[in-house]
Protein 1
Amino acid sequence: SGAAAGPPCRDFISITLGPEEVVGVGGYNNSKAWRRRSCWRKWKQLSRLQRSVILFLFAFLAVCGVISYTSMGEAWKSITNKSLDDQRTEQEIPRLKLANPAVLPAPQKADANHGDYPELSLQKPPKLPHVRRGPSNLQIKAPQRNTRLKTQHDTMRAVEEQVEVDKVEKTEKSIISWRGAVIEPDQSTEPPSNKITEPEKPSSVEAEDQKEPVPINERQLAVIEAFRHAWKGYKDFAWGHDELKPLSKSYSEWFGLGLTLIDALDTMWILGLKEEFEEARKWVANDLVFDKNVDVNLFESTIRILGGLLSTYHLSGDSLFLEKAKDIGNRLMPAFKTPSKIPYSDVNIGRGTAHPPRWTSDSTVAEVTSIQLEFRELSRLTGDEKFQKAVDEVMKHVHTLSGKNDGLVPMFINTNSGQFTHLGVYTLGARADSYYEYLLKQWIQGGKKENELLEDYMRAIEGVKKHLLQRSEPKKLTFVGELAHGHFSAKMDHLVCFLPGTLALGAHNGLAADHMKLAETLIETCYQMYAQVETGLSPEIVHFNLHAQKGHKDVEIKPADRHNLLRPETVESLFYMYRFTGDKKYQDWGWEILQNFNRYTRVPTGGYTSINNVQNPSNPEPRDKMESFFLGETLKYMFLLFSDDIDLINLDKYIFNTEAHPLPIWVPA
Ligand code: DMJ
């Protein structure tokens, strides 16, 4: 071996490993001293230039070493700080772009509205069981498309497996859920432990997860197409604003909070519109700000915004929506600071002040009694009792009030005295409608334990039967009229058509079987409110004929009432009726209605419009407004009506708020 000859320095390693060097003469220490002397001799033999070059190389390597040590330190710091970073609010969390074009749609160019996205590197898909995505037992699976939607379905399936993405700048990691919601893996979105009522995990969830999803059918595809058309108009002309004005290609503002976008979030989720959902989600993350000096209506913002955010949180598991829900929920609370605790109608969400309408100190009964599902759920999720306390107090108070007529309530309540006002007028239509709906739905939401709610509901339905039901001529349609100071009026708002669905839901939950019979009769009437009209679309209000007259139908329409605002109530009830009976006629009726919406309210350049005259097919007189509930409710209920998948929003696990936003039943059946 080269050991005996005194090896040059560059052979040092081979000499060290040689067996002689380890066990030979002089031992290991002697050999090291010899090598040091030999190297020094060699060094002295080098020219000055050679020595300079070697020294320069050593210096260079030393500098490199220092630099890499510093950057490793930074990386370590960012790892150890990660748990802190995860607690940052959504606005601070860098926005993410999907990185794998084979799995997800190609990244879109960011525009002024939608923000800019850093590049991301694809990570290994995470193992799903380790990812905490909010209340997983409540998240729903995508409806499966048929072959026409295969590409998108494949995309969704792939997304379902999830990809973990890594932001280059801050090395924060996030999960893209199967519907495109961006969720931080370490951030728990589980409700906190001090919940008021702990929702039990639905027993069938595991089995349900393994079930093959039901394919989407042609009628559902038509709904998706309609939604996309409506969304195109909103996106092109009204993005981020409250409502689309499809004819003037502009928008109208009510609260200035992107009402249509928020109302439509869970509809997109349910319809499987991943790209649209993702884009809207970015708007919520980056542009939805509640710290605004603006008056909002407590009821409308609760059912549309708070309800929409809560249901989207449940469906997607994305904590962004819960954060936003908490924000708006807190900002609405000043409404309850009244002498009677009956909330004011309006709140300034920036200033934290509330007030009744300018001309009165009354609130509308339906408004103060149809915000409970949302605030109760907010308490359950946050562990903060104040939301539930405030709305429960309203219900308890209304329960004790006099001025009811066999369970039927007047339309107004005073925020100072807490008493009903304008006594003697009873309707199931505007200003009272959802009071009845929420009695039943709160009872279901809370696990059928709150007896006062059930009592009030049952009594009210008896009141309806006793005072408000009549039959029309010539077809003898059973309808719900109104009572004013003892006088019956054969007037029925389209809004009343929520009632068959609510009655059917009650019967499904074990209430009297005759409620179902009444539901079947009433939904026929609501359908006739469409079928007997020239455009096949219902007016806002109808008057039924109580006496047979030659050449007259059951339904009469006054000039002031012949508009259609794209309202959902009939389609909503058709959905419940189909779910509970399986009778296809309900789907067929809904299909007719969808076609008539397409015929008379669809605007070619995008969007749908309310119309002024349902009696004139040649000129229905477009109103140039698409209400947010068309996307939030009407199209969602259409899609669910045409579905044969009872697990697509299972009615034993979810309860729809009055704006069609599904919230979990706390103790599911
Ligand atoms: C929606 O905002 C809700 O359904 C509310 O309960 C009644 N009005 C509209 C739809 O018609």
Note: Residues 1-35, 70-138, 140-208 have pLDDT under 50 and may be disordered.
Protein 2
Amino acid sequence: MELATPVQNVYMVGPTYAKRLEKLGLKTVEDLLFHFPHRYEDYSLISKINQIKPGETVTIQGIVNEIKNEYTKNGKKIQKALVSDGTKILEVTWFNQPFLIRTIKVGETYNFSGKVNWFGHKVSLISPEYEQVSGQRYETLGSIHTGRLVPIYSETYGVTSKWLRSRIAPLLNEYLPLFTEYLPDKVISKNQLLAYQKAIRQIHFPDNQYFADAAKKRLAFDELFLIQLASLKRKKRQEKEKVKYQFKIDPYQTSIETFIKKLPFVLTRAQQRVVREIFHDLAQPKPMNRLLEGDVGSGKTVVAAISMYFSYLNGCQSLLLAPTEILANQHFKTLKDLLSPFGVKVNLRSGSFKKEEEFDILVGTHALLSEKIKIQKLGLVVVDEQHRFGVEQRKQIREKGVNPHLLSMTATPIPRTVALTLYGDLDLSFLDEMPKGRMKVKTWVVPSLKREAAYAWIKKRVKGTKEQAFIICPLIEESETLVSVRAATQEFESLQKKIFPDLRLGLLHGRMKARDKDLEIERFRSGKLDILVATPVVEVGIDIPQATIMMIEGAERFGLAQLHQLRGRVGRANLVSYCLLFSESEQNQRLKAMEKIHIGANLAEVDLQMRGPGEVLGTKQHGIPDLRVASLTDKLLITETRLAAQETINEDLSLKKFPLLKEKLERFTIKAVSSD
Ligand code: ADP
Ligand code: MG
């Protein structure tokens, strides 16, 4: 008997059902037992027949006197049973389930759970759940479909909640002893948690609502606790590492100040604070591991530039990684403009770059990671839009040198508590202030009816003016495939021919050669184009200050964070800017939020509640296993589990005192990384 037993070998499952279960991601007995209900039907009110009232949801128990099929006037079959419990006789009604007259046996005792209602002139139970309350099955399992809180599971074709209950209940009896308690006693008692086995049983078949909640809490606790334990352990381990080149601040203070003074703008207070936080880390003997979170347009690049200048002053090289070539190109230019006047050699890892070329700062995409270059004096690695990098890539980053400092940057607006959970091993900095003078981008959801009018409006704004517009094609697939490229090309051609014949349109998609992309963006930047039609690749980071209109097709297919990123491409200078969200579903509440909310983190909260963390944060990408029970919006539980993880580690970092926990954690982290 093991938890890894394939479902196919389970009594009454077999290959057909095994295939169906696979659609729900359930392959083993353990998966099945960890397929938790998402809600319960409350059939716990048990009543005598002479006391039931229309409108109530009840369970009655009685002997079936009679059951038969009847035909209605329009030829449909209904099933009628007469049930008595000594107080009264009740009529029970089903629709279109002719087989019931064979499954439900006259003379036997059953539970019926459902809604009491009028049927014609009589009070009846309509389409209730039924369950025989005698026989061997009942002796061993008790009632599982009626007379209690009944679990409702996520279902798939041919796999109903009833079917799942009948399989899960006997499995619980058999396999539950294999779930050994692994949480330290202290953690259980301090947080008043249910015991592990009890929680697994009670989440499926709770005695009452209190136990349903307690079971859910215990299992949610486990998920968040393990995530935090894993990241805190990683953090402790990293704290023991030593950098190869220890940076000094004092000798370079004035050079840094001069550099900051000569920037074309004054740093925001948030930028100044973040620079201080980073410099504090950079002066330590252990490598920095900091995540900089800042809304689109909050000015992360310049913070990176200052940090890399500091690395240069200390005689070290830096690496800047971007998720796309377009962005790498742009960063290269920005950094060159900012830093070469100070003697810093900035280079771009592109097709023409030679290995032996010298540089102080090397900019490139993740392609750089798979190359076999070791960078001799690597002091600092900056990763832009870090959520675009997978777990494996993030591991490779540090291997380019010997324990370099790491600065990750992201505009994915993750709420602070969530960030603390997902990135417990990182230190966090927030750029929570926009540069002065930025205006809100006026945003409208545009229904199909107003499409023509919107085109006319765009034409009026961009024709013969300095203003420019982006038109983003629908998101077809997550990665840039030939299909999405073809769609974008078609869209571009039809816009140019039919809608905007007298305007200058350009096209940008991810399958273009790096140099062509660059040329197209340059044409747009220098005002030689009025409109740039693009696939969603422009989402990340492009900085074209005079663009004022962002039009997005099929907006409902995007996440709010993505839309916010796209919207962030305009309104970068002090020009009034607009974002038009074209959508078939104009009443879409999620999209409507874009009209009112202009802060990325707040939009993320909305999305998190409406779509769940998997979609919003790409938890898979972060190497976090799917959360079954816990919610990343449960701030209280996040705090509790973090504290518990901290205390456990303080007591014994090696976890040797808690061997079962140690083993569980190892299995948990392996699963997390390999699920990527
Ligand atoms: P993001 O955080 O989205 O990467 P960028 O670093 O691309 O944002 O900065 C957005 C724009 O704001 C750039 O054009 C940059 O030059 C400008 N910028 C950055 N910091 C400031 C500031 N303190 N004041 C004014 N403009 C700034
Ligand atoms: Mg950026």
Note: The first helix runs from residue 14 to 23.
